[in-house]
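stuck on this:

***
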Amino acid sequence: MSLINSYSQSLPQTSSSASNTTAVTKSSVQSTTTITGNTFLDSIRLPEESTIPEANDQLLKQEDFFALLSQQLSMQDPFEPVDNDQMIAQMASFSTVDGISNLNDEILNLNTVMSSSQALQASGLVGRKVLIPSDTGAISAESTGLNGVISTPSAIDTISVSIQDASGQLIKTFSVDGSAGGNIDVSWDGLDKNGLPVEEGMYSIKANGKVDGETQELAVSTYAHVSSVSLGTTATGAILNLRGVGGIKLSDVLAVSET
């Protein structure tokens, strides 16, 4: 009887011991995945596997090409290996692709440098006047007159010039000599037909003359004051900010005049 009782009493103890061991084991496992709060200990913990898939841009890089080549060489038929010329051609193709990629990066860097250099050179135009392909200019307290150039296809005895405001109203008319042909300088003093100064604003110079016996409208370009220069982009280049007119690309400037 004593043996049975001893055996029956020891059974629960064994079960309890096993459950305690299991609990300790679980506790130990849980403690390894729990942040301790110690900066040093948390920093040396193994990183947990991320469940977020990495972004796949589906673009083949040079490493991918070499991996494909290695896979091709390892899977080739030993009795019919890849021809040397074919392998060299593939390697040359990989080198070409990599070279083109590097060349594109260098071109982008070169464009950036050229844009900055162009803006630096254009900064020398600040305070000067440039000729732009527009017949409209600004009258202000700093610039009380308007100068421009009339382009003629041939010599014209008399060129009729009219000044209009922003609404198209006629302000003044006068004539200039176009017998020299080509580019004819035109200047307006900023006075209306009564000899009074006009208000500040935008005004246009219109010109026409007889070409081959027919009256034609002639192209007019005007001078504008450069107040500042902007860097712009690789596509536009340096931008000249003109007083009262706005921005214009440096490549659109026709001529530069004295201060």
